[in-house]
Amino acid sequence: MNKIESAIQHIVDEAGVQQMGTSLRAEFDILQKAHDAIHEFMLLAPLCFPAEATHEVSWQSKSAFLVYHWEVFHHAHRSFIEALGTYYNAAFILLRTSLELLLKGAFWECLSHRQFRDNSPILDASSEGKAIKNFLWMSIEASPNIENELDQISAGIFDRFGHKIEDPGFRPSIKTLVRQLDQWGIFDSIPDPISVVYNGLYSGLSADVHVIPDKIDIGRRIDSERSELFEQLIDQPLLQEYATTLHEIMDVGIVIELNILQNLIERFESVQPKLAGRHAAIEQLGLQCGLARVRELLK
Q1: What is the reported pTM?
Q2: Cα–Cα distance, 223 to 56 (Å, whole number)
Q3: Looking at residue 13, what is its pLDDT?
Q4: In 3D, which of 58, 132, 105, 138 has the Cα closest to residue 252?
Q5: Nearest in space to 246 (alpha carbons), one of 215, 287, 194, 191
Q6: Which of 128, 259, 290, 287 shows the shortest CA–CA distance to 183?
Q7: How many domains does the chain have?
């Protein structure tokens, strides 16, 4: 075996590829639904754009959300692979990143459009939120055409903010974002979204990101009194917990994307049959909140 082939085999072994089949067999049903939910999330967004799209309605009008949407798909997929390979802490960290990408994408998309900016009391109560809004209003007053540009290409908001997005003074907390998105109706069909999205999913996954001792892989093994502390072995209860969390995040993600794209779904006749065509798949995957939102939008 030459050096390249040896290196490839070494990386394959380190990636946990050999554990993946065993992981799938251990929790196949929930893992399959969680995995397929990632693809359902990715599929729905393009279906919600009309076949008769004009210069007034294109993917660019929702591009602030869609650039994050693309990243969510790949982060969630990578997370799934890490979990199958028994790297659970890495998998959970990527899950929180996926959730945060969803929230940030929805937030910047809404902020790009006046109807949301004009009705944002949660941001008004936050110093960071007020800083963002004031900066936007100053930009629009200096160049009124910006408002129309953002309606047509929402991702233009990133060009307008530039480096300020990284400034802590312009960065509302995730709790503020969740509360504001809730007030804007972006979680419609999720019962008690603050508890589900922030108190449940986001806060729970934060322990993995902040490397709390009993949330890192070695800490979990010590806590479970496992004898093989330094071996990458499958932890079936943890794998089940992971799959359930991924499935729930994708359910939330589908609700968010449907609400972000709601005006397109309701406005264009060509969209509704395409969305109706996914009803059975969403139901089969057990995506309860997403299913409820689809049914509401198709009434």
Answers
A1: 0.91
A2: 57
A3: 81
A4: 105
A5: 287
A6: 259
A7: 1
Q: Output the six-digit token pair for 62.
A: 């929702």
Nearest to 124 by CA among 112, 133, 136, 114: 133
Mean pLDDT, rounded, for 12-20:
83
What's the CA gap between 181 and 108, in Å, rounded? 10
> 162 is written with which tokens?
């530039």
The boundaries of the domain holding residue 115 are 30-38+58-297
- Residue 70 belongs to a domain: yes
Determine the Cα–Cα distance for residues 218 and 229; give it in Å rounded to an integer.
Answer: 6
Q: With 80 as the cut, is the pLDDT of residue 209 above it? A: no
> Is 108 a member of any domain?
yes
- Per the CB < 8 A criterion, the answer to whether 189 and 62 are in contact is no
pLDDT (tens digit per residue) in 133-166 = 999 999 888 888 999 999 999 999 998 877 778 8
Poorest-pLDDT segment among 27-31, 139-143, 191-195, 240-244: 139-143
**Left if phi > 0, otherwise alpha if psi is -120 to 50, otherwise beta: which for 82?**
alpha
**Considering the domain boundaries, does residue 92 fall inside one?**
yes
* Backbone phi and psi for residue 204, each to the nearest 5 degrees, phi listed first: -65, -40
Query: In the block, which residue shows the tokens 């944002």?
Result: 120
Q: Is the Cβ–Cβ distance between 19 and 234 less than 8 Å?
A: yes
Instruction: Identify the sign of the CA torsion 91, 97, 101, 102.
Output: positive
Residue 279 in domain: yes
